[in-house]
Amino acid sequence: MEEIDKDNLPKHIAITMDGNGRWAKTKGKLRVFGHKNGVKAVRDTVEGAAEIGIKYLTLYAFSTENWNRPEKEVNALMTLLVSAINKETKTLMDNNIRLSAIGDIEKLPSKAQTELQEAIEKTKDNTRMTLVLALSYSSRWEILNAVRNIIKDGKKAEEINETTFQQYLTTKSVPDPELLIRTSGEYRISNFLLWQIAYSELYFTDTLWPDFRRTDLYKAILNYQNRERRFGKTTEQLQK
Length: 240
Ligand code: FPP
Hints:
Helix content: 40-55%
Number of strands: 6
Bound molecules: farnesyl diphosphate
Order of helices and strands: EHHEHEHEHHEEHH
CATH architecture: 3-Layer(aba) Sandwich
Shape: globular
Strand order of the largest sheet: 3-4-2-1-5-6
């Protein structure tokens, strides 16, 4: 933590939390056991991110494609989500963290929607960090949804540019992530924030999500700080 340059922090970090199932398997347990331990990793990572000064943290908690998992696992994940939000709202308040969500939230069971809305409402004035949960989220869904709404609003082709399009995405009030982390040794984007990660630095770690802690987050931030972000320019142009 001491090695991190506080003046060069990513404002927004996005994480694909992967490997819960494999973690459980290595322990001879059911997948749900992995998800339960995944919640511990969520707690430590959220606290660690707020502590170091990250302003936005987005966690990919449930993808549109995850609805295709066995019903039992989907139900267990939804139950876990409800109980985690319920239990952790206090932690969010204590840490001055605002909760928000992106995705096709209306697809979630009504209990989960209510719990989520309550926590969002309760934490809405918190200012230290915004925790964004991606739930029933997929980037293609989001982009198509944006296009549909643009058409519904009767926008003209000439009115559409990066800035106006951005306003139709579920992330409209969140800056693009500078850093995207994926755990469990998989090197894929899996339909996550496709528009928003155009210039993000990607960081992959073999650590399975339930083992991930704030120290792993800090390692990723240090790695990010040692990269040169050129945005299409040359090194010489950046030094001017
Ligand atoms: C990926 O592991 C993880 C998920 C699909 C769910 C993530 C959910 C949590 C950590 C718990 C609830 C979250 C919050 C925000 C309270 P996987 O099942 O794909 O693992 P595998 O690739 O090893 O099978």
